[in-house]
């Protein structure tokens, strides 16, 4: 009996000794995740695909370690970081990307993050009462308040700035009529509206929903529901350098695959993903508000990030109406990254 126990112990020890190198070999054979650096100008939920992908960590399945950063200074600062090589991807307003490309900067629009204008024109209740404009007034009357309102933005030259000016044109005003005040992040804009330091902001939910919920603001105009063509403008996009290295390009393709996986998850169960986003990024906001906000934005996630001739035409029209210049080159956008991402890895 003693001999049998000794043999069993020796066999166990031998197997353990053999297993250790095998396990170590497996650990060493697993490649380290590839880093992709992505920057965006604000923490607005309109960047829903990015929020969902980060909350669900769909990057892990693609062996991507996303290094995300909020870049102060608005869209131009994010694009400058891509130009300098500090970032591989910029998540920015499409019209700002157009303006940069029109000036000859070496960028290309490669992916749609939000395929509609997701922003609500939200005004303070005090300003609305002072303006005398009714909520059921004709659209041009409601947009006319932009002639006297002080509109808060996160940065000059960014998406909020340009959308506010575009809304002014839809109300028969000049883009130059809009008075802007640089305030900061979306939460800071909400606080400024509540405290009377600004009269309005142009932001997506949840900021507009929070203002209504806390009873200091009113949504005056929902462009994607009220203005023809606003529901097909690719308002937020990913931008990369025009000629990245093959290695960078391959990492970006896998990153887009992760974005599409997150987008599919939102479409399948928006409330479930909303709760994940709330838990990770909006713990101080009511889960019901984030749920409502995600459900209001989900129809802008379709198309797997593709651009089309129709959506590009809508974007160019939008840019022209806000005083932007169209790029001279015909290849300022591409679906090649998206098509590669849709192929099986």
How many domains make up the coordinates?
A: 2
Order of neighbouring strands in the sheet with most strands = 2-1-3-10-4
Q: Report the sheet with the most strands, covering strand number, pairing sense and barrel closure.
A: 5 strands, mixed
Average per-residue pLDDT, rounded, comes to 90
Elements, N to C (H/E): HEHEHEHEEHHEHEHEHEHEHHHHH
CATH class of the largest domain: Alpha Beta
Helix content: 40-55%
- Low-confidence runs (pLDDT<50, min 5 residues)? 1-20, 22-27
- CA(first)-CA(last) distance: 56 Å
Shape: globular
According to CATH, the fold-level topology of the largest domain is D-Maltodextrin-Binding Protein, domain 2
Query: Could you say which structural class the secondary elements and strand pairing correspond to?
Result: alpha/beta
- What's the total number of strands? 10
Kindly report the name of the CATH homologous superfamily of the largest domain.
Periplasmic binding protein-like II
- Report the radius of gyration as a whole number of Å: 24 Å
**CATH architectural category of the largest domain:** 3-Layer(aba) Sandwich
| Distinct helical segment count | 15
How large is the share of residues in beta strands?
Answer: 15-25%
